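Reading a protein record of the kind used here takes only a little practice. The record below shows the convention in full:
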Amino acid sequence: MAQLKNNERIKVLIVEDEVAIMTLLRYNLEKEGFAVITTGNGEEAVNLIKENKPDIVVLDWMLPGMTGVEVCKHVRWNQDIKNTPIIMLSARGEEGDRIRGLDSGADDYMVKPFSPPELIARIHAVFRRIRPSLSEKVLEFSGIFMDLTTRKATRDGVEVHLSPTEFGLLRHLMEHPGRVFTREQLLDSVWGHDIYVEIRTVDVHIRRLRKALNYDGKQPDLVRTVRSAGYALEENPEGKNYINDDSNEDDAA
């Protein structure tokens, strides 16, 4: 999940009047863990920036009423929101249009069509350049923190020592808390589609991950085996122990 240092999700405002593009961007940004607000209207965008204080704005140039350039200028003139990072989107690819967009106050300029991964990369680049504190990516779940920049994990403030595979496994589960994954899905997501690994290798790493997370034997297990389905990262208020639950793993998907 894309988060700030206070563990809040990075908030992105998408200002785009083409529904198909807005839907595509929203889906991909939310998939990456961003909190997303959307509008297709320039005047409403200015109000949303004032009210919601997004961490970054993805702003289309061609909007009904107030254009993206006008929105950008309005933001830069307002003392309360003038430091809001803005990435401008446009089908205008000429040098003069790029210069005009940047001169209006945009921090970056992207020409349509573009890929969502490129936009996400540009967002992180803007953060690194303008607001470096927001470029750090941290995942959190029930006292477990993963710093994806330093590749360190802690639980209740104590460092958890994980192998690269265990780190990748925990990262995948923490990016989708509560979702049940089969062994096959975990193999594809963590090990890769082109890597041949015995399916029971997942069980071995799940057991190692559980033991690493429950380093003192007093922590509630969070990696649950779902019978005839797979594994999920879930809250465990009853403190059930799954570490030696071999019978459950035999019934997993």
About this structure: Residues 246-253 have pLDDT under 50 and may be disordered.
